[in-house]
Amino acid sequence: MMNVTEEAERIRQSQGGVSCLRDEPGVYRVWMPKGDAPGLAVSRAIGDHCVWDVISNEEAVEIVCSTDDREKSAKRLVQCAMRAWRSKKRGIAMDDISAICLFFHPKLFQEVNPFKASK
């Protein structure tokens, strides 16, 4: 794992910036060179919010496993998260939502998928 200080220095040497907003202390953002808009909070950008705010791990597994076409499972998970957000978080602005589904044992997944009926 890369040291945070070393990574911040690497970004600065590439003319980028690393800093926190006043209202988000401790949330370091990567800023583009000469950027005046808030940068990306990279540590929060992967697996931190939105989907997991409204869908449990078990629900996510069920959604992914019950999708017939594995290539469409991430899109379906995002769609389900968006629907859940709208119903559970009314009036709260929705974060950007993205998902990546990894299948480490695809053959095993197809054979023992508990969410699909046997044919």
From TrEMBL:
Q: What name is this protein filed under? A: PPM-type phosphatase domain-containing protein
The record's annotation in Gene3D superfamilies points to: PPM-type phosphatase domain
InterPro entries according to UniProt: PP2C, PPM-type-like_dom_sf
